Amino acid sequence: MNFFLKQKNLLWVIALLLIANVATFIGVVIAYTDKESSPEKDRNLFFKKLELTESQKKVFIARKALFRSINEPLYDRYDSIMIRLQHQVSITPTDTAIIRKYTDSLGLLNAQIRRNWISYSIEVRRCLSKEQQLRYDKLTLEHLKCKIGK
């Protein structure tokens, strides 16, 4: 008689396949959640690398919230101008005066966003020790280099 035709053996094979499927599912979920980055997880890792005290963490969190509240409308305007710019590019004939106006506006917004970032950076550095400032500068440069792919 064939091995798989016995009910007892068939049940064992089904059980083993079920266990293998569940183990694979759990492995995939664990691998995905471990690799997945969250803003809070990244922030806590950043704080750990800087060895911040609780009061320093509060300063960083408060300043970041202020920075975001100031820059969020600027990012929204930037995106809005980019949409209008793309619309202008698709129109034939292209009006270079309007395109120049939009690109100039984008440049001004980008400059303001960068100035706000520098202000934020200067403010949070004030609450750091000299050693922490060096680590902060190093981590910030690493982050910027990763963003631009260098």
From TrEMBL:
<protein>
    <recommendedName>
        <fullName>Heavy-metal resistance protein</fullName>
    </recommendedName>
</protein>
